[in-house]
Amino acid sequence: MPTKKDTDKRLYVLDTNILLHEPLAFLSFKENDVVVPMTVLEELDYIKDSKKDVARDARVSIRAMEDLLHNATPDQLIAGVSMKGYAHGDAAPTGDLSIFSDHGLAETHQVFTSNENDNRIINAALHLQNMLSPREVVLVTKDINMRLKAKGAGLAHVEDYRTDQLISDIKYLSKGYHTFEGEFWHKIKSVDSRSEGRDTIHTLDKRLLPEAYINEFLLDEDSDFAGLVEAITPETLEVLDLGKDRLMGRSAWGIHPKNIGQAMALHALLDPHIDLVILTGPAGSGKTLLALAAALEMVVEKNMYDKIIVTRSTPEIAESIGFLPGTEEEKMAPWLAAITDSLEVLHKNDENTKGSMHYIMEKANIQFKSVNFMRGRSIQNAIVILDESQNLTASQLKTIITRCGEGTKLICGGNLAQIDSNYLTPVTSGLTYLVEKFKDFSGSATVNLDGVVRSRLAEFAEQQM
After folding, report:
1. Which of 73, 173, 331, 411 is buried most deeply by CB count within 10 Å?
2. At 195, which CATH number?
3. Domain span at residue 311?
4. For the segment 131-166, what is each residue's pLDDT rounded down to a tens digit?
5. Cα–Cα distance measured from residue 442 to residue 439, given in angstroms and rounded to the nearest whole number
6. pTM for this entry
7. Do 191 and 149 belong together in one domain?
8. How far apart are CA 281 and CA 449, in angstroms?
């Protein structure tokens, strides 16, 4: 068992959901020590053989801990094994990892008498707090109710896992564009403009927008100016002149943008040089419809890609898909109704809507896939539409992104106000992590669609409820 020594080092007790959220989370506590209760290992063991989407994360975490601890004796395992030298990016850990047997706790140390797993983990943290005082013992869990129970039971330090949290408040999340007050050109003291074919590139002083990033759109309030940051040096910004009218004039598969946000999104979606497009915004803002329209335009009309793969993940899919009848596409259909709804909208003027939809789905080679079966694949020359991505962790999103091979474009859409996962919040969602991590990547673009265009009913509900 960890000792009272090194009172300046904190002792972190990890809940199971931390290792499912980030399988290598035990390596993220720098010089501090980490304890994994035996109950957590039991839960990981149960989950690793399940049909849940997090089964892979459980296996990855177990293998990583075994790799670190495989040479340790039982006594060393309990006392703690140094994590020094076990590489984990820039923040390599130097503390100890130990396994704590929470089954043998005397009843006098138990606050909760019921034998639920959460209660056993809390009891273990309370026992360590009592035994190691004044050393600081911290329970780390993403379960809000468990944090409340632990504090109510007398645990002094309880935290959420925030190592992969890049922003403190969702209001600081990058929107993908910057709006200047007044007229843009009134703020410019000097500019060097050049023509490249039909395009005009302006070289501006970077002090105009010191925090600018690649593929960020620039707008103003009082004129037709719209631009896109194409290159950044320590002193300058290179801005492609687009113009609001030019942006609003774009279309895909018969769909025209209804506002400037949709126009910026459509520009990014149709740009062959952008490999990752991230669309955020409220329900009814047009994320799925625009993504599908652009995908059809690029696959069917322009022959730029071979197929469209549509996928999404919700907590129910991983548990239920295997019990539904039919093929993978048929099993996924109930959860991908948003795609078929969008297809109906795109072909509502056709005399035979269902016939047109069926024809287009075959011609565009639209495939409905479960996130479970995306793992291990290498997807080439395709457009991948990942819907409802706000329900995925950063680790799960990384798994999907790394499946995208040469010539593949990934479109991630999500509404951070509608998270279904029990352990994710807007600031810890993988979608938020993705926006912030990729904003400086020249092959990606983010657009926040601000405004509901589905109907006046949907707009009123989004604003008032």
Report:
1. 411
2. 2.40.240
3. 262-464
4. 998 999 999 999 999 999 999 999 999 999 988 788
5. 8
6. 0.82
7. no
8. 5
Is there a single domain that holds both residue 352 and residue 456? Answer: yes
Domain boundary among 211, 241, 271: 241
Q: How confident is the model at residue 358 (pLDDT cuts 50, 70, 90)?
A: confident
The whole-angstrom separation of Cα 286 and Cα 302 is 22
- Last-in-domain residue among 96, 126, 159: 159
The whole-angstrom separation of Cα 442 and Cα 430 is 20
Let me know: does 204 contact 165? Beta carbons within 8 Å: no
**Other C-beta atoms within 10 Å of 327: how many?**
10
CA distance 23 to 217: 36
Which long-range CB contacts under 8 A does 202-208 form with residues at least 24 apart?
202/227, 202/238, 202/239, 202/241, 203/236, 203/237, 203/238, 203/239, 204/236, 204/237, 204/238, 204/239, 205/235, 205/236, 205/237, 206/232, 206/233, 206/234, 206/235, 206/236, 206/237, 208/237
Beta strands in 72-209 (DSSP E): 81-82, 96-100, 137-140, 157-159, 177-180, 192-196, 199-205
Please tell me whether residues 382 and 424 are part of one structural domain: yes
**CA 249 – CA 245 distance, rounded (Å):** 6
CA distance 309 to 299: 11
The pLDDT, as a whole number, for residue 334 is 56
The answer to whether position 251 is within a domain reads no
**Which H or E element spans position 227?**
strand 226-232
Beta bridge partners of 280: 414, 448
DSSP 263: H
Domain count, the chain: 3
How many residues does the structure list for the chain? Answer: 465
Q: Long-range contacts: 185-193, Cβ < 8 Å, 24+? A: 185/223, 185/225, 193/241
Q: In terms of domains, do 235 and 299 share one?
A: no
* 121 and 151 assigned to the same domain: yes
Is 393 found in the same domain as 340? yes
pLDDT tens for each residue of 14-30: 999 999 988 999 999 98
The domain that contains 55 carries what CATH number?
3.40.50.1010
Q: Is residue 252 part of a domain?
A: no
| Residue of 308, 278, 298 whose CA lies nearest to 444 | 278
SS3 state at 56: helix
Residue 236 lies in a domain: yes
Residues 371, 335: contact at Cβ < 8 Å? no
For tokens 């919700």, the residue is 314
Whether 233 and 104 share a structural domain: no
